[in-house]
Design goal:
Elements lengths: L1 E6 L4 H11 L5 H9 L3 E8 L2 E11 L2 E9 L8 H15 L4 E7 L3 H9 L3 E6 L9 E7 L4
Helix pairs in contact: 1-2
The protein binds coenzyme A.
Coenzyme A binds next to strand 4, helix 3, strand 5 and helix 4.
Length: about 150
């Protein structure tokens, strides 16, 4: 069964292990710091006992920045990212968030397409932002309260 649950600060290990197997974005220390922040919400999408995706958002007044969004490699391109993103949008709408913002590498074709699919628009570019010299695209999506 598919479920989405908010992750608490006791779950550093789960997040770090998932991240190590997917995009290796943060160290255990960075996950500890992230999960400690009161402004941050982290969600996991699971199928039975297997973690399929994790996302982290940081709430700043009426905006939410997506700091982390990743789907387990084995489960990509099967709609699970869409499921998690729809949930995130719903939660943000309930919290009266007006805008979702994120940064994505210009070279990350899958993620760019994924965010375009959800009508995130590019609003800026940070030149040579990443270690590999690639540019970061700043993207945002305006949320309309239903
Ligand atoms: C980006 C990511 C989260 C997408 O998750 P996913 O579960 O594979 O996405 P979905 O199956 O829900 O795909 C939804 C749509 O996104 C786009 N998309 C997703 N993966 C794609 C790929 N590899 N190539 C092109 N388009 C892609 C397509 O439009 C797709 O719709 P379609 O399958 O009907 O064509 C996943 O590839 C991932 O975890 N990547 C590594 C982490 C990452 O880069 N995160 C973003 C950092 S900012």
């Amino acid at each position: 069964m598919l479920s989405i649950k908010e992750i608490t600060k006791d779950n550093v290990r789960l997040c770090f292990e998932f991240d190590s197997k997917t995009i290796s974005l943060w160290s255990a220390k960075q996950w500890t710091e992230e999960l400690k922040k009161k402004s941050v919400k982290v969600f996991k999408l699971s199928l039975l006992n297997e973690v399929i995706g994790i996302c982290a958002i940081e709430l700043v007044i009426d905006e939410a920045q997506i700091n982390y969004f990743s789907v387990n490699k084995k489960f990509r391109r099967k709609g699970f990212g869409t499921h998690l993103m729809r949930y995130l949008i719903k939660i943000c709408e309930e919290l009266n968030i007006k805008k979702l913002i994120l940064e994505v590498s210009e070279t990350n074709y899958a993620a760019k397409n994924f965010y375009n699919h959800f009508q995130f628009f590019t609003v800026g570019i940070r030149k040579k932002y990443y270690k590999d010299g690639s540019d970061a695209l700043l993207k945002e999506k305006t949320l309309i309260k239903k």
